[in-house]
Amino acid sequence: MRKALNSVGAMALIALMVLGVNRANACTNVLVTKNASADGSTMISYAADSHVLFGELYFWPAENHPDNAMLDIYEWDTGKYLGEIKQAPHTYRVVGNMNENQVSIAETTFGGRSELRDTTGIMDYGSLIYVALQRAETARDAINIMTSLVEEYGYYSSGESFSIADPDEVWIMEMISKGPNNKGAVWVARKVPDGYISAHANQARITTFPLNDEENCIYSKDVISFAREKGYFDGKNKDFSFADTYAPLDYSAIRFCEARVWSAFRQVNQEDADKYEDFIMGESDERMPLFFKPQNKVSARDVMNIMRDHFEGTALDMTKDAGAGAYKVPYRWRPLTWEVDGEEYLNERAIATQQTGFSFVAQMRNWLHDPVGGILWFGVDDADASVYVPMYAGIQSAPHEFAVGNGNMLEFSWDAAFWVFNWVSNMSYSRYSYMIEDIRKVQKELEDKFEQMQPAIDNTASTLYEQNPKLAEQFLTDYTHNQARITVEKWQKLGQFLMIKYLDGNIHPEKDGEFLKNEYGNPHSPEYPGYDKEYYRNVVKDTGDKLKMKEMPQD
Q1: Among 5, 52, 126, 407, which one is least packed by beta carbons within 10 Å?
Q2: Closest CA to 254 of 289, 279, 224, 223
Q3: Strand 510-511 relative to strand 389-392, pairing
Q4: For residue 535, what are the contacts with CB-CB under 8 A and spacing of at least 6?
Q5: Coil/strand/helix, residue 124
Q6: pTM above 0.90, yes or no
Q7: Domain ranges of the chain
Q8: Are strands 159-165 and 104-111 parallel, antiparallel or unpaired?
Q9: In tens digits, what is the pLDDT along the chain, a chain of 555 residues?
Q10: What are phi and psi of 491, to 5 degrees?
Q11: In the 8-state DSSP scheme, what is residue 87?
Q12: Whole-angstrom distance, CA of residue 205 vs CA of residue 537
């Protein structure tokens, strides 16, 4: 018997095959341990950034499989069929990137040495994530499953950093294949010390690591010997650096990738992070540490805000240079690098970016039953202009507005959360400094409501779970589906509001969301804000006296 990734999840892979998704060098993860978090939960975040990724919530139900079952593997990025593997006797329910045991996995691609790409392997990085989620009971279990799969079936992808967490432990694992003639991969996994956070963004970050501490660090037996064999390393074992060996830094890796990590660290400990600004600017070779201790405990809302970062308040602030335009837009359309008069320049690459398909903050809480304790705070499109909706680990299906099969990249639908959020965010890019304030009001209103309701939802679901786990799951499903529907409806109304308020470059006055009328019941006269002084000065600098008002000669 042969099965592809089952149920609705298979539809996601078909959609990816049609669209030819490529997320290389595109994503950002933040990892938070129990004693670094405000409530004792563990957390990992993820932004799945791709110009052709349709943002939707993957869902696989728990299933039992016969002894002879096989699982078809398709490359996550392209949909290419890679081969088949043995199916597990039982697979767990998966909601997005979290399973029913509160195990969560995310990734960023670092590529690494191109000659090590193995095009003969079966397991690509995306399939590793979703197969492991269907099989893992803990984070350590997920690491064992992922590394065993690539050892048995080969690793098809290039270098990858994985965030792997359960309610008690948070791990970062980095892996790269060994080339077409060497089956498997070399890898290192390090547990993030309790009380610390970590982050990665498309650049390998594990340098040296303890060689005799299995509680906190595990690695492939040939991770060093393979590097010696290939001529990448000839020093002492204790000095071996995974990142420097398999993914050496260059300026692009620092400015486009490590800069995002730096900005995330800076938001939880500005004093310590600012010491590495010279490194980010390419003026120092002192790398940032893998783990960072926050000055204050980090909440789920804090992590959401990190995912919305554009380097605000730093030397890389994207709202400050001429590229931001008159309305301080913190986005730059691709490509990332460009030439003028024979010189190459760059656009900053922030955590929040316009091409995000979906993002999440996975929160795992060990003091609650798994269906209640796990929350995947899930949003689609640009994280800065999105809303993180709570998707509990115990839900029995994905909400319609976010479900796989409800829309695609080539057909606009008012019924799909992805298109509604893209409609609003793309509208805001034309007048960002004004519109983002209206967007954040509604964003905050919704996320405040989720936060305020959470204790009651947790308590009710926990009480129901003690009576009947299925009742708890149905309650959580109903709650999640209702909040998803309300959120999308609210965002539709927000888009309509923005269209009216900012019609034709004017601002139509309103109070508490109601547009003002004149004494005769007609629309109040709009405001004409024009542009700021800096913009006008640049216009004058460029045009000289061409636009200058002149006095006409008097007779």
Answers
A1: 52
A2: 279
A3: unpaired
A4: 325, 326
A5: coil
A6: yes
A7: 510-543
A8: antiparallel
A9: 334 454 444 444 433 333 333 444 579 999 999 999 999 999 999 999 999 899 999 999 999 999 999 999 999 888 899 999 999 999 999 999 999 999 999 999 999 999 999 999 999 999 999 999 999 999 999 999 999 999 999 999 999 999 999 999 999 999 999 998 899 999 999 999 999 999 999 999 999 999 999 999 999 999 999 999 999 999 999 999 999 999 999 999 999 999 999 999 999 999 999 999 999 999 999 999 999 999 999 999 999 999 999 999 999 999 999 899 999 999 999 999 999 999 999 999 999 999 999 999 999 999 999 999 999 999 999 999 999 999 999 999 999 999 999 999 999 999 999 999 999 999 999 999 999 999 999 999 999 999 999 999 999 999 999 999 999 999 999 999 999 999 999 999 999 999 999 999 999 999 999 999 999 999 999 999 999 898 899 899 999 999 999 988 887
A10: -70, -35
A11: P
A12: 44
Structure tokens at 250: 């260059």
H or E element, residue 225? helix 225-230
**Assigned token pair, 4:** 């592809």
Tokens 């392997």: give the residue: 121
Residue type, 118: D
Cα 491 from Cα 199, distance rounded (Å): 30
Cα separation of 356 and 182, whole Å? 34
484 contacts 417 by C-beta, under 8 angstroms: yes
Burial tier of 546 (Cβ tally within 10 Å: 0-12, 13-18, 19+): exposed
**d(Cα 394, Cα 102) in Å, to the nearest integer?**
10
Give the per-residue pLDDT at 8.
42
3-state secondary structure 351-417: CCCCCEEEEEEEEECCCCCHHHHCEEEEEECCHHHCCCEEEECCCCCCCHHHECCCCECCECCCCCH
The number of residues in the chain equals 555
Q: Mark 389-423 as b/e (b = at least 16 C-beta within 10 Å).
A: bbbbbbbbebbebbbbebbbbeeeeeebbbbbbbb
For 136-197, give the DSSP string. Answer: -SSHHHHHHHHHHHHHHH-B-S-EEEEEEE-SS-EEEEEEEE--TTS-SEEEEEEEPPTT-E
Residue type, 533: K
Task: Please give the single-letter amino acid code of residue 157.
Answer: S
| Residue given tokens 């922030």 in the structure block | 350
Find all residues with CB under 8 Å of 138, minimum gap 6, and list them. Answer: 101, 103, 166, 168, 169
Helices (H) and strands (E) in the chain, counts: 15, 24
Distance CA 261, CA 46 (A): 13
Per the listing, tokens 């539809």 go with: 11
